[in-house]
Amino acid sequence: MNNIFSKATSALPGLLVAGLLATSTVHAGGVLTDVPALGYSPQNMDKTVDPRQDFFRYAAGNWLKNTEIAPSDPDVGGFTLLARNLDKQLLTLIKASAAETNAPKGSARQQVGDFYKAAMDDARRDALGVKPLEADLQRIAAAGGTPADYGRLAGRLQDGVGGSPLIMIAAMPDAKDSNTTVMVLLPGGQLLEQDEYSKPEHQKLRETYRQYVVSMLNGIGDPVDTARSNASKILAMEAKVAGSMMSPLQMRDPANTYNMMTLDQAQALIPALDLRAFLKVQGIAAPKKVQVVDINALKALQRMLTELPVGDVKQLLRWFLLASRASELGRPYRLVEEEFSRTRRGLKTSPEQERVVTQQIGAQLYHPLSQLYVQAYFPDSTRREITEMVGHIKDEFATRLRSNTWLDDATRRAALEKLGKIDIQVGYPSGWVDFSSLDIRPDDHFGNVQRANRFAFQRDMARVDKPVLKNRFAVATKTTPIAVNSAYNFTTNTIDITAAILQPPFYKPGADVAANYCAIGGVIGHEITHGFDSLGRQYDPRGNLRNWWTPKADKEFKQRTDVLVEQYSQYVVPAKFTSSHPPAPI
User: Is residue 147 helix, strand or coil?
Assistant: First the structure.
């Protein structure tokens, strides 16, 4: 459950991804039997349906009749089918690495193979039980409620599991100085979405979550009655914190999240938690400045830390530690976590362990595994063909900007400048992130996960107050070569088109040009538009947050987009399509 704290950073401006995100890979030389063919197919139509009454079923009715959602998938479609097949192909690469006996320490094959062997060693994981968490559980139990105590505990969790329920940090380019990395101070992480803590339609989910907390706390030694009492307190604290946070829509506006201040000014917002103690325990120097994303959320945390008994706060910390690492423990902890995730996502069965491990390797050893993939399966010819296509699509976009009737000349020139500076790269980076110093062992799954997380986090934090690293294809699960995706980054004005997406149904070498342009060409064009949408248009060609629109063009843009806002605001989702267990990543 490594994404328990990732939602806060994903809400920040910076990266937009295309379509449904699938974190998987592609085997260009294999036969992907379940993936839809590239291009139009009349066999997918249902011509018995009147297109004036239901065009979707007219166009795709037979495909709907003949396609089933896999028991361990939440949905089905081109992305999902491709992801499932690609995971199978990627697993072949991983198993081949695991079978090697002489791969040099620190090499891609050694790291990928040993991570897999340790993750699949259920006997060892079961024998360890909850032992990997004992040291931190004891630290939480022994701590007091001073600002230094809270700072150190939150810092230990951030360093050990990647976040805390109190406060978190990340490193990002400064929105107004995109060449410099800044430390970002974020609200604490939570397991449920913001609305799921409060809206009546999610009451069933909240009860399922409560029972999950009870089961896990009971599993580490709490009597059932104690576990029930603590679970109620934990849910109440999480709900209170969630209620104080900005909504995802508010978080999308950089004017709300760009609150730059000194560390002392940030400390004044939350005197109950020592920020310097928080940083020190992680070995991180105090920054020159910090971007506070959600000021009101910090003030609410201050009230919680001063009003609640220390024991309640420690229960929240204890639960966060357990929940964020439950999937890395042995059975039964992992099975309880899997059952909660399965129920929450509305799945018939949980994903196979090998598939879960495959995706975890792709997320944590993203460049070592990507290197193996690119070497084996991604042809240079595809890279050249897509690069040529990119040039044609950019040219067409420029033509449309020039012929736009409502842009004034000043804004048009600025837009063309920004378009010209968009750097679109294809497949994989010119330079790989060096993972060779990361210690991956064949008999220490929990430690491998901890060290991989710490490696990525410390690498990012080392850049604070320094120039931004210009790594491409390096956002785990989103822009790596083994993510079925493409993405636009506001702060760099760049687009990464991953190797994995350059397969049917999005692209096929030698296929009809019109089909390729409609499929992957549509994806590329979609990403370019992000540089000029309601969020991307706020950033200039260098990725700095700056208004380059004239008042007249700004007004014209808003008038046109408000029409879409009004249209979508009128849509109502029928009750039969809503659920107390909506799909969510695990």
Answer: helix
Neighbouring CB atoms inside 10 A of 567's CB total 9
Token pair for 54: 């239901």
Element spanning 290, H or E: strand 290-292
140 with 146: CB under 8 angstroms?
Answer: no
- Of 71, 65, 72, the closest CA to residue 43 belongs to 65
Q: Which distant-in-sequence residues (6+ apart) come within 8 Å of 133 by Cβ?
A: 220, 321, 322, 325, 329
Omega before 332 within 30 of 0, i.e. cis: yes
Residue pair 182/202 in contact (Cβ under 8 Å)? The answer is: no
Q: Distance between CA atoms of 75 and 9, rounded to whole angstroms?
A: 25
Q: Which residues contact 84 (CB under 8 A, 6 or more apart)?
A: 24, 34, 70, 73
Grade residue 19 by pLDDT with cuts at 50, 70 and 90: very low
Decide if 440 contacts 114 (C-beta within 8 A).
yes
| Residue partners of 469: CB distance under 8 A and separation at least 6 | 181, 463
The structure tokens listed for 405 are 């009737």
Which tokens is 545 given? 């947050």
CA 19 to chain centre: 14
Q: Give CA 429 to chain center in angstroms.
A: 20
Length of the chain measured in residues: 586
pLDDT at 184: 97
- Give the residue from 14, 20, 25, 28 showing the smallest Cα distance to 483: 25
The answer to whether the bond into 505 is cis (omega within 30° of 0) is yes
Interatomic CA distance for residues 448 and 125, integer angstroms: 12
Beta strand extents in 340-455 (DSSP E only)? 423-427
- CA dist 194 and 246 (Å) reads 9
User: Is the model's pLDDT at 581 over the cut of 90?
Assistant: no
Residues β-bridged to residue 173: 181
pTM listed for this prediction: 0.90
The answer to whether residue 337 scores a pLDDT higher than 80 is: yes
pLDDT at residue number 22 = 34
Distance (Å, rounded) from C-alpha 115 to C-alpha 110? 8
> How far does CA 298 lie from the centroid of its chain?
23
Average pLDDT along the chain? 90
Yes or no: say if 341 and 1 are a contact pair by the CB < 8 Å rule. Answer: yes
- Helix 333-345 to helix 203-219 angle (10° resolution) is 180
